[in-house]
Amino acid sequence: MAQQFDLIIIGAGPGGYVCAIRAAQLGMKVAIVDKRGSFGGTCLNVGCIPSKALLHASERFEEAAHGFEGLGFATGAPILDLKAMMAYKDKVVSANTAGIDYLFKKNNITGFHGAAKISAAGQVDVAVDGGDDERLTAPHVVVATGSESAALPGIEIDEKRIVSSTGALALKEVPKRLCVVGAGVIGLELGSVWRRLGAEVTVIEYLDHILPGMDGAVVKQFTRILKKQGMKFHLKSKVDAIHSQKKQLQLSVSPAAGGEEKLIEADVALIAIGRRPFTGGLGLEALGVAMNTRGQIETDAHFKTSVEGIYAIGDVIAGPMLAHKAEDEGVALAEILAGQAGHVNYEVIPGVVYTSPEVASVGKTEEALKAEGTDYVTGSFSFSANGRARAMNTTDGMVKILADKDSDRVLGVHIIGPFAGELIAEAAVAMEFGASAEDIARSCHAHPTLSEAVKEAALAVGKRAIHM
Question: What range defines the domain where residue 228 resides?
Fold first, then answer.
């Protein structure tokens, strides 16, 4: 007999598990299904969390090697134990995924490990790993299956020498030469990990700049910093093929606009050209669930698909493929199903690149404001003029604020520098409440802190920065 629930969620990543927990808090009987052996999705298992563990560990490794100069003490050269570093990463992942198991038990959520298929509206069949198949029924079914790495045509990823982000998180040794295809967030983060551990990193990008969609001034400064750190870039370039030799790879690279091909040698190639929605095997086509040309599930403002009783959130629908965007959608959907007014403000979703220094952004870029014809003013402040940044020896970067010329309402904030991913939260909260640049400028910030750079940038919007 079928097990009956109020809500069934397919996919236990950030969108799915958060939706499950919020729905359970609101009194629903919830089931969640995930084909992976542990809950948490790509993010917790082979994405956000393990990459941040390696970013942190590799930053400390580089700091021990080069970052203590002039601070009044010396250490010997650090010795890399890659196996132990990977064990640290795995420990972090296990702790986080175990935390999801605990939260499911705490909230009486029934979890299934196995492949799910929506056989009819309100009915989900699960091929349970190592057990009997299960049939689940519920008036509401949510697709939250996330995304997978996009592939280059004709290039096979073996996760050993030609790797996606998954393979790049589990290399057995530091490659002498790493070639990263794609200068987006994933490519730059993982490229920076292996550069710090000793690899020569070359990045190939189809566009004429790194970090597509980021503010131009930030991108320009960040490119200079990465080059200074040792990364090499081939912009306006594309990879036509990758040839496997006995001991190395050869990448055939040509200008994006067409032209003479050249060969770049590498020990490992990381394909990081983006991600695509993962919806295969769910039975959506047979049910008539509408999809767009990008393979995303079409939904209305309440996350409803074209089939009654089926909803979708996260990377499978339109919008930035970010874990926190999926989480907010999961909460909003659970509240809508409970008769409340769930909502996501898509104008205020921050994005962070966890390199060193970090890059963070929320709201409109200067390029976007120009394109839409919005009159704006801008203010910037460099971390080189911030007392705390000087004391920490982390003076690279700046804060840039864009505000409406007439109302002074903050339209976008862009930060490159130490702890940018934490500092951007102030900007997001300010924008959520419709703050003006003057609101930020007149809010007292503790001294000495990095957050004073945000205040000074807000002051600079009105051409009255104190420390620059």
Answer: 162-273
Burial 219-255 (b: 16+ CB within 10 A, else e): bebbbebbeeeebebbbebbbeebeeeeeebbbebee
Total number of domains constituting the chain = 3
pLDDT digits (tens, 9 = 90+) for 269-312: 999 999 999 999 999 999 999 999 999 999 999 999 999 999 99
> pLDDT tens-digit profile of 79-110?
999 999 999 999 999 999 999 999 999 999 99
Same domain, 46 and 106: yes
Encoded amino acid at 8, one letter: I
- Note whether 284 and 140 are same-domain residues: yes
Model pTM greater than 0.85?
A: yes
Same domain, 355 and 412: yes
Catalytic residues: 447
Q: Is the peptide bond before 357 cis (omega within 30 degrees of 0)?
A: yes
